[in-house]
Protein backbone atom coordinates (compact mmCIF):
# COMPACT_ATOMS: atom_id res chain seq x y z
CA UNK A 1 0.00 0.00 0.00
CA UNK A 2 1.40 3.38 -1.04
CA UNK A 3 0.27 6.55 0.73
CA UNK A 4 0.92 10.10 -0.42
CA UNK A 5 1.16 12.21 2.75
CA UNK A 6 0.52 15.97 2.73
CA UNK A 7 1.30 18.28 5.67
CA UNK A 8 0.72 22.05 5.97
CA UNK A 9 -0.49 22.62 9.55
CA UNK A 10 2.11 25.20 10.56
CA UNK A 11 5.23 26.47 8.82
CA UNK A 12 6.41 23.41 6.90
CA UNK A 13 4.97 22.54 3.49
CA UNK A 14 5.64 18.82 3.16
CA UNK A 15 4.82 15.80 1.02
CA UNK A 16 6.01 12.21 1.23
CA UNK A 17 5.37 8.79 -0.27
CA UNK A 18 5.43 5.93 2.24
CA UNK A 19 5.00 2.20 1.62
CA UNK A 20 3.04 0.08 4.12
CA UNK A 21 3.25 2.79 6.77
CA UNK A 22 6.95 2.29 7.47
CA UNK A 23 9.10 2.52 4.35
CA UNK A 24 9.80 6.10 3.24
CA UNK A 25 10.19 6.41 -0.54
CA UNK A 26 10.42 10.21 -0.39
CA UNK A 27 10.15 12.93 2.23
CA UNK A 28 10.16 16.51 0.91
CA UNK A 29 9.98 19.41 3.36
CA UNK A 30 9.92 23.09 2.44
CA UNK A 31 10.44 25.01 5.67
CA UNK A 32 9.39 28.64 6.09
CA UNK A 33 11.56 29.15 9.18
CA UNK A 34 13.77 31.77 7.52
CA UNK A 35 10.71 33.88 6.74
CA UNK A 36 9.08 33.63 10.16
CA UNK A 37 12.22 34.17 12.19
CA UNK A 38 12.22 37.78 11.03
CA UNK A 39 9.10 38.15 13.21
CA UNK A 40 10.22 35.94 16.11
CA UNK A 41 7.49 33.37 15.48
CA UNK A 42 5.05 31.98 12.93
CA UNK A 43 2.85 34.61 11.23
CA UNK A 44 -0.31 32.72 10.16
CA UNK A 45 -1.14 34.85 7.11
CA UNK A 46 2.39 34.51 5.72
CA UNK A 47 2.32 30.76 6.39
CA UNK A 48 -0.87 30.25 4.36
CA UNK A 49 0.41 32.27 1.41
CA UNK A 50 3.72 30.42 1.36
CA UNK A 51 1.99 27.02 1.50
CA UNK A 52 -0.05 27.98 -1.58
CA UNK A 53 3.13 28.94 -3.42
CA UNK A 54 4.99 25.74 -2.55
CA UNK A 55 2.53 22.90 -2.28
CA UNK A 56 2.32 21.79 -5.93
CA UNK A 57 6.07 21.77 -6.31
CA UNK A 58 6.61 19.89 -3.05
CA UNK A 59 4.11 17.18 -4.05
CA UNK A 60 5.64 16.86 -7.52
CA UNK A 61 9.10 16.45 -6.01
CA UNK A 62 7.87 13.82 -3.56
CA UNK A 63 6.25 11.83 -6.39
CA UNK A 64 9.34 12.12 -8.60
CA UNK A 65 11.75 11.12 -5.88
CA UNK A 66 9.63 8.09 -5.05
CA UNK A 67 9.43 7.31 -8.80
CA UNK A 68 5.66 6.92 -8.68
CA UNK A 69 2.63 8.36 -10.46
CA UNK A 70 -0.88 8.90 -9.08
CA UNK A 71 -1.81 5.48 -10.52
CA UNK A 72 0.48 3.86 -7.95
CA UNK A 73 -0.98 5.72 -4.96
CA UNK A 74 -3.60 3.90 -2.86
CA UNK A 75 -4.63 6.81 -0.64
CA UNK A 76 -3.86 10.42 0.13
CA UNK A 77 -3.29 11.17 3.81
CA UNK A 78 -3.63 14.85 4.64
CA UNK A 79 -3.34 16.71 7.94
CA UNK A 80 -6.74 18.31 8.72
CA UNK A 81 -5.94 19.39 12.30
CA UNK A 82 -4.83 20.57 14.71
CA UNK A 83 -2.99 23.62 13.41
CA UNK A 84 -3.46 27.05 11.87
CA UNK A 85 -6.76 27.06 10.00
CA UNK A 86 -5.50 28.93 6.93
CA UNK A 87 -2.41 26.74 6.71
CA UNK A 88 -4.38 23.50 7.13
CA UNK A 89 -6.88 24.55 4.45
CA UNK A 90 -4.14 24.70 1.81
CA UNK A 91 -3.21 21.04 2.30
CA UNK A 92 -6.81 19.90 2.68
CA UNK A 93 -7.96 21.73 -0.49
CA UNK A 94 -5.00 20.35 -2.43
CA UNK A 95 -5.64 16.78 -1.26
CA UNK A 96 -9.33 17.06 -2.10
CA UNK A 97 -8.53 18.40 -5.57
CA UNK A 98 -6.16 15.50 -6.28
CA UNK A 99 -8.65 13.00 -4.89
CA UNK A 100 -11.46 14.48 -7.02
CA UNK A 101 -9.34 14.49 -10.17
CA UNK A 102 -7.85 11.01 -9.75
CA UNK A 103 -10.40 9.09 -7.68
CA UNK A 104 -7.73 8.24 -5.07
CA UNK A 105 -9.34 7.79 -1.61
CA UNK A 106 -8.84 10.56 0.92
CA UNK A 107 -7.80 9.91 4.52
CA UNK A 108 -7.88 12.95 6.81
CA UNK A 109 -5.08 12.61 9.35
CA UNK A 110 -4.44 14.01 12.82
CA UNK A 111 -1.18 15.99 13.00
CA UNK A 112 -0.25 14.84 16.52
CA UNK A 113 -1.12 11.22 15.74
CA UNK A 114 1.30 11.75 12.86
CA UNK A 115 4.03 12.81 15.31
CA UNK A 116 3.39 9.59 17.28
CA UNK A 117 3.50 7.50 14.08
CA UNK A 118 6.91 8.95 13.16
CA UNK A 119 8.21 6.28 15.55
CA UNK A 120 7.06 3.49 13.22
CA UNK A 121 9.29 4.64 10.37
CA UNK A 122 12.70 3.66 11.73
CA UNK A 123 11.66 1.31 14.54
CA UNK A 124 10.25 -1.52 12.44
CA UNK A 125 9.66 -3.69 15.52
CA UNK A 126 7.64 -1.07 17.42
CA UNK A 127 3.98 -2.02 17.75
CA UNK A 128 1.25 -0.91 20.17
CA UNK A 129 0.66 -0.98 23.05
CA UNK A 130 3.22 1.57 24.20
CA UNK A 131 3.42 4.78 26.20
CA UNK A 132 4.18 7.91 24.15
CA UNK A 133 5.44 11.23 25.47
CA UNK A 134 4.35 13.85 22.94
CA UNK A 135 6.41 17.04 23.24
CA UNK A 136 5.84 19.38 20.31
CA UNK A 137 5.61 23.12 19.71
CA UNK A 138 1.94 23.29 20.68
CA UNK A 139 1.23 20.08 22.61
CA UNK A 140 2.49 18.11 25.59
CA UNK A 141 0.70 14.85 26.31
CA UNK A 142 1.30 11.46 27.82
CA UNK A 143 -0.75 8.97 25.81
CA UNK A 144 -1.15 5.23 25.76
CA UNK A 145 -1.22 3.97 22.20
CA UNK A 146 -3.50 0.97 22.73
CA UNK A 147 -3.71 -0.12 19.10
CA UNK A 148 -2.90 1.58 15.81
CA UNK A 149 -5.09 4.68 15.79
CA UNK A 150 -6.42 4.12 19.35
CA UNK A 151 -5.18 6.57 21.98
CA UNK A 152 -5.86 7.16 25.65
CA UNK A 153 -4.64 10.49 27.00
CA UNK A 154 -3.43 10.08 30.59
CA UNK A 155 -1.73 13.46 31.05
CA UNK A 156 -1.45 16.87 29.43
CA UNK A 157 0.02 20.30 30.01
CA UNK A 158 -2.07 22.78 31.98
CA UNK A 159 -0.44 25.79 30.30
CA UNK A 160 2.53 26.05 27.91
CA UNK A 161 3.64 23.16 25.72
CA UNK A 162 7.22 21.96 26.19
CA UNK A 163 8.34 23.33 22.81
CA UNK A 164 6.63 26.62 23.50
CA UNK A 165 8.57 26.92 26.78
CA UNK A 166 11.83 26.27 24.93
CA UNK A 167 10.92 28.92 22.34
CA UNK A 168 9.95 31.52 24.98
CA UNK A 169 13.08 30.98 27.08
CA UNK A 170 15.22 31.14 23.96
CA UNK A 171 13.66 34.48 23.07
CA UNK A 172 14.28 35.77 26.61
CA UNK A 173 18.00 35.04 26.34
CA UNK A 174 18.18 36.40 22.80
CA UNK A 175 18.58 33.19 20.83
CA UNK A 176 15.88 33.75 18.21
CA UNK A 177 13.28 31.45 16.63
CA UNK A 178 12.88 28.48 16.80
CA UNK A 179 14.56 28.33 20.16
CA UNK A 180 14.52 24.62 20.96
CA UNK A 181 17.55 23.57 18.90
CA UNK A 182 19.49 26.68 20.02
CA UNK A 183 18.88 26.01 23.73
CA UNK A 184 19.86 22.39 23.12
CA UNK A 185 23.21 23.48 21.61
CA UNK A 186 23.95 26.20 24.18
CA UNK A 187 23.05 23.89 27.10
CA UNK A 188 26.13 21.80 26.28
CA UNK A 189 28.34 24.74 27.23
CA UNK A 190 26.56 25.44 30.51
CA UNK A 191 26.10 23.89 33.95
CA UNK A 192 22.68 22.28 34.43
CA UNK A 193 23.05 22.55 38.21
CA UNK A 194 24.00 26.26 38.21
CA UNK A 195 20.46 27.61 38.74
CA UNK A 196 17.71 25.73 40.60
CA UNK A 197 14.67 26.29 38.37
CA UNK A 198 11.38 24.80 39.65
CA UNK A 199 10.07 21.34 38.72
CA UNK A 200 6.27 21.58 38.66
CA UNK A 201 4.26 18.72 40.14
CA UNK A 202 0.50 19.07 40.21
CA UNK A 203 -1.43 17.91 43.26
CA UNK A 204 -3.73 15.02 42.38
CA UNK A 205 -2.69 14.92 38.70
CA UNK A 206 0.63 13.05 38.61
CA UNK A 207 0.78 12.88 34.80
CA UNK A 208 -0.14 16.49 34.02
CA UNK A 209 2.49 19.10 33.23
CA UNK A 210 2.98 22.82 33.77
CA UNK A 211 5.80 24.80 32.16
CA UNK A 212 4.74 28.38 32.75
CA UNK A 213 6.39 28.38 36.20
CA UNK A 214 9.83 27.42 34.96
CA UNK A 215 9.51 29.95 32.13
CA UNK A 216 8.64 32.73 34.62
CA UNK A 217 11.51 31.63 36.87
CA UNK A 218 13.92 32.11 33.96
CA UNK A 219 12.53 35.62 33.29
CA UNK A 220 12.78 36.47 37.02
CA UNK A 221 16.36 35.21 37.12
CA UNK A 222 17.30 37.43 34.17
CA UNK A 223 15.60 40.48 35.76
CA UNK A 224 17.31 39.78 39.07
CA UNK A 225 20.75 39.58 37.40
CA UNK A 226 20.14 42.80 35.48
CA UNK A 227 18.97 44.67 38.61
CA UNK A 228 21.98 43.53 40.61
CA UNK A 229 24.35 44.18 37.74
CA UNK A 230 25.38 40.51 37.64
CA UNK A 231 26.33 39.20 34.21
CA UNK A 232 23.69 36.85 32.79
CA UNK A 233 25.24 33.46 32.01
CA UNK A 234 23.15 32.35 29.06
CA UNK A 235 24.72 28.90 28.79
CA UNK A 236 23.98 28.16 32.46
CA UNK A 237 20.39 29.36 32.01
CA UNK A 238 19.95 27.15 28.93
CA UNK A 239 21.47 24.12 30.68
CA UNK A 240 19.57 24.61 33.94
CA UNK A 241 16.26 25.28 32.18
CA UNK A 242 16.69 22.22 29.98
CA UNK A 243 17.58 20.06 32.95
CA UNK A 244 14.49 21.23 34.87
CA UNK A 245 12.20 20.44 31.93
CA UNK A 246 13.86 17.09 31.20
CA UNK A 247 13.67 16.05 34.89
CA UNK A 248 9.90 16.55 34.91
CA UNK A 249 9.34 14.88 31.55
CA UNK A 250 11.42 11.85 32.50
CA UNK A 251 10.07 11.36 36.04
CA UNK A 252 6.40 11.63 34.96
CA UNK A 253 6.95 9.28 32.03
CA UNK A 254 8.58 6.71 34.30
CA UNK A 255 5.75 7.03 36.85
CA UNK A 256 3.15 6.60 34.10
CA UNK A 257 4.92 3.54 32.69
CA UNK A 258 4.85 1.96 36.15
CA UNK A 259 1.22 2.89 36.83
CA UNK A 260 -0.02 1.53 33.47
CA UNK A 261 2.37 -1.42 33.22
CA UNK A 262 3.97 -0.19 29.99
CA UNK A 263 7.34 -1.62 28.95
CA UNK A 264 7.83 0.39 25.74
CA UNK A 265 8.28 4.18 25.72
CA UNK A 266 8.25 6.37 22.62
CA UNK A 267 9.01 10.08 22.24
CA UNK A 268 7.28 12.28 19.66
CA UNK A 269 7.28 15.90 18.44
CA UNK A 270 10.00 18.47 17.89
CA UNK A 271 11.32 18.39 21.46
CA UNK A 272 11.89 14.62 21.08
CA UNK A 273 15.06 15.57 19.20
CA UNK A 274 16.42 17.34 22.30
CA UNK A 275 19.71 15.70 23.27
CA UNK A 276 19.21 16.23 27.00
CA UNK A 277 15.77 14.62 26.87
CA UNK A 278 17.04 11.64 24.87
CA UNK A 279 19.94 11.11 27.26
CA UNK A 280 17.74 11.49 30.36
CA UNK A 281 15.15 9.06 28.98
CA UNK A 282 17.81 6.57 27.93
CA UNK A 283 19.31 6.48 31.44
CA UNK A 284 15.92 6.18 33.13
CA UNK A 285 14.65 3.48 30.74
CA UNK A 286 17.82 1.48 31.26
CA UNK A 287 17.43 1.75 35.02
CA UNK A 288 13.79 0.62 34.90
CA UNK A 289 14.27 -2.06 32.25
CA UNK A 290 12.10 -0.31 29.62
CA UNK A 291 12.71 -0.07 25.88
CA UNK A 292 12.93 3.41 24.42
CA UNK A 293 12.09 4.54 20.89
CA UNK A 294 12.39 7.92 19.22
CA UNK A 295 12.53 9.18 15.63
CA UNK A 296 15.54 10.77 13.91
CA UNK A 297 15.42 14.58 14.22
CA UNK A 298 14.07 14.98 10.66
CA UNK A 299 11.01 12.87 11.62
CA UNK A 300 10.58 14.62 15.00
CA UNK A 301 9.71 18.04 13.60
CA UNK A 302 6.94 18.50 11.05
CA UNK A 303 7.11 16.27 7.98
CA UNK A 304 4.69 14.38 5.75
CA UNK A 305 6.21 10.90 6.11
CA UNK A 306 4.76 10.72 9.63
CA UNK A 307 1.37 11.80 8.24
CA UNK A 308 1.51 9.08 5.57
CA UNK A 309 2.41 6.53 8.26
CA UNK A 310 -0.54 7.52 10.47
CA UNK A 311 -2.80 7.61 7.39
CA UNK A 312 -1.76 4.06 6.45
CA UNK A 313 -3.08 2.65 9.73
CA UNK A 314 -6.24 4.78 9.46
CA UNK A 315 -6.71 3.50 5.90
CA UNK A 316 -6.34 -0.09 7.13
CA UNK A 317 -8.89 0.67 9.86
CA UNK A 318 -11.32 1.68 7.10
CA UNK A 319 -11.21 5.47 7.40
CA UNK A 320 -12.20 7.30 4.18
CA UNK A 321 -13.11 10.96 3.92
CA UNK A 322 -15.30 12.67 1.34
CA UNK A 323 -14.87 16.00 -0.37
CA UNK A 324 -16.58 17.57 2.65
CA UNK A 325 -13.39 17.04 4.69
CA UNK A 326 -12.68 20.31 6.48
CA UNK A 327 -9.78 21.77 8.43
CA UNK A 328 -10.35 21.48 12.21
CA UNK A 329 -7.87 23.80 14.01
CA UNK A 330 -8.46 22.30 17.48
CA UNK A 331 -8.93 18.64 16.50
CA UNK A 332 -8.47 16.44 19.60
CA UNK A 333 -6.38 13.27 19.68
CA UNK A 334 -8.63 10.37 18.77
CA UNK A 335 -11.34 12.72 17.42
CA UNK A 336 -12.50 12.03 13.85
CA UNK A 337 -14.55 14.15 11.45
P1 LIG B 1 2.42 20.98 17.03
O1 LIG B 1 3.00 19.75 16.44
O2 LIG B 1 2.12 20.88 18.49
O3 LIG B 1 1.30 21.52 16.24
P2 LIG B 1 4.70 22.25 15.86
O4 LIG B 1 4.32 21.43 14.69
O5 LIG B 1 5.00 23.67 15.68
O6 LIG B 1 3.55 22.11 16.97
P3 LIG B 1 6.91 20.49 16.12
O7 LIG B 1 7.13 20.51 14.69
O8 LIG B 1 6.58 19.19 16.73
O9 LIG B 1 5.89 21.59 16.61
O10 LIG B 1 8.22 20.97 16.82
C1 LIG B 1 8.65 22.30 16.83
C2 LIG B 1 9.04 22.57 18.26
O11 LIG B 1 10.11 21.71 18.65
C3 LIG B 1 9.52 23.99 18.47
O12 LIG B 1 8.94 24.48 19.66
C4 LIG B 1 11.04 23.82 18.63
O13 LIG B 1 11.65 24.80 19.44
C5 LIG B 1 11.12 22.46 19.29
N1 LIG B 1 12.41 21.80 19.09
C6 LIG B 1 12.97 21.41 17.92
N2 LIG B 1 14.20 20.89 18.13
C7 LIG B 1 14.41 20.94 19.47
C8 LIG B 1 15.50 20.57 20.33
N3 LIG B 1 16.61 20.03 19.84
N4 LIG B 1 15.36 20.80 21.65
C9 LIG B 1 14.22 21.33 22.16
N5 LIG B 1 13.19 21.71 21.40
C10 LIG B 1 13.27 21.52 20.08
MG1 LIG C 1 7.42 24.00 12.30
FE1 LIG D 1 4.04 19.41 14.69
TrEMBL record:
It is found in: Cytoplasm. Belongs to the KAE1 / TsaD family. Required for the formation of a threonylcarbamoyl group on adenosine at position 37 (t(6)A37) in tRNAs that read codons beginning with adenine. Is involved in the transfer of the threonylcarbamoyl moiety of threonylcarbamoyl-AMP (TC-AMP) to the N6 group of A37, together with TsaE and TsaB. TsaD likely plays a direct catalytic role in this reaction. Keywords: Acyltransferase, Cytoplasm, Iron, Metal-binding, Transferase, tRNA processing. It catalyses: L-threonylcarbamoyladenylate + adenosine(37) in tRNA = N(6)-L-threonylcarbamoyladenosine(37) in tRNA + AMP + H(+). The keyword Protein biosynthesis does not apply. The keyword Nucleus does not apply. It is an enzyme of class 2 (transferase). Residues 23-308 form the Gcp-like domain. GO terms for molecular function: iron ion binding; tRNA N(6)-L-threonylcarbamoyladenine synthase activity. This is tRNA N6-adenosine threonylcarbamoyltransferase. Fe cation binds at residues 111, 115, 302. Substrate binds at residues 134-138, 167, 180, 184, 274. One of its GO terms (cellular component) is cytoplasm. Binds 1 Fe(2+) ion per subunit. Its cofactor is Fe(2+).
Amino acid sequence: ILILGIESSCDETAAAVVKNGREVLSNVISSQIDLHKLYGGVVPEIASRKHIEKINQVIEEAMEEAKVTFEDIDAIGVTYGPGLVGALLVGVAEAKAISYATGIPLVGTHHIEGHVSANYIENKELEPPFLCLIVSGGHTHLVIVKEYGKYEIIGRTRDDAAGEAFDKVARAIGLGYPGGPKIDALAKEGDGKAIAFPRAHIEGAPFDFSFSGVKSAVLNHINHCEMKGIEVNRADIAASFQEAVVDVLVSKTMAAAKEYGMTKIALAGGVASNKGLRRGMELACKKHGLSLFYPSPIYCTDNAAMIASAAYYEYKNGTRHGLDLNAIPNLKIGQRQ
